[in-house]
Amino acid sequence: MYEPKIIAFFCNWCTYTAADLAGVSRMKYAPNVRIVRVMCSGRVDPELVIKAFDLGADGVLIGGCHPGDCHYQNGNHKTLRRSVLLKKLLPQLGIEPERLRLEWISASEGEKVSRVCNEFTEEIRKLGPLKREVKNAG
């Protein structure tokens, strides 16, 4: 049975902390999600998202602080603008835009991390494997 590979770029101050809360609270979420901690969702460059797909990810999830709550003041606004542009660019690269998801998750929302990871895993599972040539990480 196909199991999707999902890379999640989570903001250190909110979403990563919420993922930690979910773990400590023993909330279950799909093991398909591999979390990469970034200091701010605004630091997730579009090239990083495309590289994740190039290296075999079937889906990419970006989690950041709610607008207005960014530790770096406007990093999540940058993230929103970038994700809108990325969703327009992805089809030109042979990637369905549904394979990229952006969520605002605060540090206290461990349940939301669990729910979003499970929902996104199911969505990607329904889409099936990403049919692209996978490049080596070298």
How widely separated are the two ends? 29 Å
Low-confidence stretches: none
Task: Report the count of strand segments.
Answer: 4
CATH topology assignment: Rossmann fold
Structural class of the secondary structure composition? alpha/beta
Mean pLDDT: 94
What percentage of amino acids are in beta strands? 15-25%
Describe the protein:
The chain has 138 residues and is an alpha/beta fold. It has a single domain (6-127), classed as Lumazine/riboflavin synthase (Rossmann fold), CATH 3.40.50. Helix content is 38%, strand content 17%. It is built from 4 helices and 4 strands; from the N terminus they run βαβαβαβα. It has helices at residues 15-24, 46-54, 75-89, 110-127; strands spanning 6-11, 33-38, 59-64, 100-104. It starts with 5 loop residues before the first strand and ends in an 11-residue tail after the last helix.
